[in-house]
Design a protein that fits this description.
Layout lengths: L6 H8 L5 E5 L5 H15 L7 E5 L2 H14 L8 E4 H12 L10 E3 L1 H14 L9 H13 L4 H7 L3 H19 L2 E3 H14 L1 H10 L2 E4 L7 H11 L5 E5 L14 H4 L1 H4 L4 E5 L7 H11 L29 H18 L17 H10 L15 H14 L4 H7 L9 H13 L4 H9 L10 H21 L4 H12 L1 H6 L5 H16 L1
Parallel strand pairs: 1-7, 1-8, 2-3, 2-6, 4-5, 6-7
Length: about 525
């Protein structure tokens, strides 16, 4: 299994005991090393697969690692715990989170839902979003959670009026999360840290389960993630982290480069293995990259990237006057390669730093009739996918006000913003969720609820729909429940009536059902 590895890769795979830092340069076969290391632990060292934990940052990376591992160990790969930080620790919270007051049926709010909750918190405090932008405040809250600083600690450390305002919104935001029985992605990490610290028996159970820990993209970890690694790895110390400080670009997203720089101090006696042979690029590219990164001051050690690949073509740099000139140049270069017949359109990629830069390039490509495809919105962020998921969330968790607000008038059913605001007022005065208030209105319990006849009929109809779907949830599979949601709410017809993109949107919902089937 390891005969095809180069000497540095083989050393990284076979150094299995104790803490290990693998400094993996770009294109150095990092994923291959991680997968072979796991396979060597199981097949070569006799480690039971359930004692191995491998965490990374994206579901795509986790799937890629699992697929490769299944190719090496088809019978044992699925017994390895492998996934993103959030996926792995969310499972632990669902199992043991009740010890710190976390409901086992919590929902996880994404960015849009978090933003909606911050806006509601601003409303609670009568703060004008024009002066206190919700997005900026949410960013501050996220940064605070990433360093394990809760609302009270943030308030205690506030040094300006604006920070005091953020502290108040932070507290109201957390209160609304709790009422909705929801967590955001930062809570998954910080609450697991709290669970481990306050209940050592839970930590010991996890330490006994995960005796060998591997962390991918370690340079992108934040304080909370590294604290979880240290807590879990403290007992057996078989912690292997893989990363490259020169590829740390997410400090704006709370990544802490000092995690990789301080690993040797935090885990005394650790070994370092450097992977510096590149399999992906030409030497010309590597020489240019080396000239850039050697100026970095915060480094574990110098790396001298090299490759057995050809030297390659020189790098060309053009300075252009404006976005339109840039787009014209890019289009002409692409057209030149296509006309020469050396490349097909799918062989060429145009990368830009910000989304705004795509406009000029897209327009130029259209004018020049260059076939192209824009990489757009991710699947889980598509409107129709989030709508269906919001229905499912409200069905299983009526306390989820954010999801309720999303689907209360989707498809349109005559429940406008004023009706929702009145329902929210009525629910808030009685300490109820919006779904509970809707159910009361549907049963005719409307004392103090100022609604017109049309709004009352619309609410009653929606209440009946949710009640029918809640009954179906206990009787049907997830796939059948999604079908019921589409049919009972008319959401499938709503998408079909979208002449511009209805077919594509229906295909996305069908893909969601395929995911639900497993």
């Amino acid at each position: 299994m390891i005969e095809q590895l180069n000497p540095a890769q083989r050393l990284a795979v076979e150094t299995t005991e104790g803490p290990v830092l693998i400094v993996a340069g770009p294109g150095s076969g990092k994923t291959r090393v991680i997968v072979h290391r796991i396979a060597h632990l199981i097949a070569g060292r006799g480690v039971p697969p359930w004692h191995v934990l491998a965490v990374t940052f994206t579901n795509r990376a986790a799937r890629e690692m699992l697929t490769r591992l299944q190719g090496l160990l088809p019978r044992q790969a699925d017994s390895v715990t492998m996934g993103t930080f959030h996926a792995v620790f969310a499972r632990i919270l669902r199992r043991d989170g009740a010890r710190i007051g976390v409901d086992s049926h919590f929902v996880i709010y994404d960015d849009g839902e978090q933003l909606a909750l911050v806006k509601r918190a601003l409303g609670d405090l009568n703060l004008d979003e024009k002066y206190y932008p919700a997005r900026a405040i949410l960013h501050q809250i996220s940064l605070s959670k990433s360093v394990l600083r809760g609302p009270q600690e943030y308030a205690n450390q506030a040094q300006s009026h604006r920070e005091e305002i953020v502290a108040g919104v932070y507290r109201a935001y957390q209160e609304r999360l709790a009422k909705n029985r929801a967590l955001d992605f930062d809570d998954i990490l910080s609450d697991t840290v709290r669970l481990f610290r306050e209940h050592p028996d839970v930590l010991e159970q996890c330490q006994e389960r995960y005796r060998y820990i591997l962390v991918d993209e370690f340079q992108d970890t934040n304080v909370a993630q590294y604290e979880l690694v240290k807590l879990l790895g403290r007992a057996h110390r078989n912690v292997c982290v893989v990363g490259d400080e020169d590829q740390s670009i997410y400090s704006w997203r709370s990544a802490n480069i000092h995690n990789i720089l301080d690993f040797g101090r935090d885990f005394p006696g650790s070994q370092t293995v450097v992977l510096d042979q590149n399999y992906r690029s030409t030497q010309m590219i590597l020489t240019a990259a080396q000239g850039v990164i050697q100026a970095n001051r915060l480094r574990v050690r110098d790396k001298h990237l090299w490759t057995a690949n050809p030297v390659g073509q020189p790098i060309v740099v053009n300075e252009l006057s404006d976005a339109d000139h840039e787009a014209s140049y890019v289009a002409s270069e692409v057209a030149r390669h296509l006309v020469a017949g050396r490349y097909r359109p799918r062989d060429i990629a145009v990368m830009f730093r910000t989304n705004a830069q795509s406009r000029a390039i897209e327009q130029q490509f259209l004018r020049d009739r260059i076939p192209h495809r824009v990489i757009g919105v991710r699947f889980w962020e598509r409107q129709e996918v989030k709508d269906v998921l919001a229905y499912l969330r409200v069905i299983v968790n009526p306390a989820d006000n954010v999801s309720f607000t999303r689907i209360v008038n989707v498809p349109p059913r005559g429940i406008g913003a004023r009706t929702v605001a009145e329902l929210d007022r009525w629910a808030g005065e009685r300490g109820r969720s919006l779904a509970d208030a809707l159910a009361c209105a549907g049963r005719g319990e409307r004392q103090g609820l100022a609604l017109g006849t049309r709004a009352e009929r619309a609410l009653a109809g929606f209440a009946e729909t949710l009640d029918d779907l809640a009954t179906a949830a206990g009787e049907r599979t997830l796939v059948d429940l999604i079908s019921s949601v589409l049919e009972r709410t008319g959401y499938d017809r709503y998408l079909a009536n979208d002449t511009a993109s209805g077919e594509d949107r229906l295909n996305n919902v069908e893909e969601l059902m395929g995911v639900a089937k497993g």
